[in-house]
Amino acid sequence: MPGLARSLRRQRKLRYNYAMLSEFDLIKQYFMRPPGTTVRRATLGIGDDCALLTPAPGTQMAISSDMLVEGRHFFAAADPRKLGHKCLAVNLSDLAAMGARPVAFTLALALPSAERSWLAGFSEGLFALADAFECELIGGDTTKGPRNISITIFGEIEPGHALRRSGAQAGDDIWVSGTLGDARLALAGLREELVLDSDALAAAAVRMHTPTPRVALGMALAASGLARAAIDISDGLVGDLGHILAASGVGATLDVDVLPAGPVLATRPLSLRRQFTVAGGDDYELCFTAAASSSTRILALAAAVATPVTRVGRIDVTPGLRFIDADAQTLELRLAGFDHFTS
User: Fold this and answer.
1) Half-sphere exposure of 202 (CA within 13 A, CB side)
2) How does pLDDT run across 213-253, given as a tens digit for each residue?
3) Smallest Cα–Cα separation from 168: which of 288, 283, 56, 84?
């Protein structure tokens, strides 16, 4: 009886998909890579109580951690493959902001259940990006609980070359990479804060779900010595630039109307473009400062790594952040970056 046979096959498939996985089975099936499938950076990787990393001679380790929590940083129905990409991308963006070369990362993963289809998609997205940057998974932890993804990433950089937040000087140009605001526009559409047609939402959501970490640009800026201060734009330009200003003891004037809006946001009204480029969040672009005299070299360096950059303001002696429009007139904007406890 063909109908009964199909029903039994579906039942067997469902039992397989939701069969209980032990912690070690989960790790072995979805997160241990077969020999020869990835670049091996660790002296000792997954399998013991600790991994062992041996920095290349003459380098320092750059280390960063980020946590993504369901309901706070991503929707419960988020595509697992895209989520795998994003959770590593946000950590790679931190390395980019320091100018470090990616080496390895650990993954701590809490899941409400060990669902095979979710794990397969998540690990596929995670490793596709990891392989693109030759960044090896070397350990971590898994447990049952509310969905929570925490990654610690390790990079290498020559001593004295790391890009810091504290090096901006009065007279510096302020630059940003790529475009801003489409990720925030997509979030507004998904939250129904504004109406987007399906094509516009899908196009903007690419930036929200699969950001591009600017590792090549960060490494080139660090190696060249052209950038004086840098940060990645994760919580909105106004908030993240504010960290540079505070660490460097300076102020800034931001040319709001030259901020490079994402292609979808660029079609929206001026007021919305200003709001989402200045304080959108989830962009994962780089903001950096450099001497005004180095602008030609900055543009050439950015072109060499195929990453567009835009000069968007200047560093001032006077503390605080000021906004001007296309006519150099002062704008009174009351915008703040994302805060993980108050936003």
Assistant:
1) 3
2) 999 999 999 999 999 999 999 999 999 999 999 999 999 99
3) 288
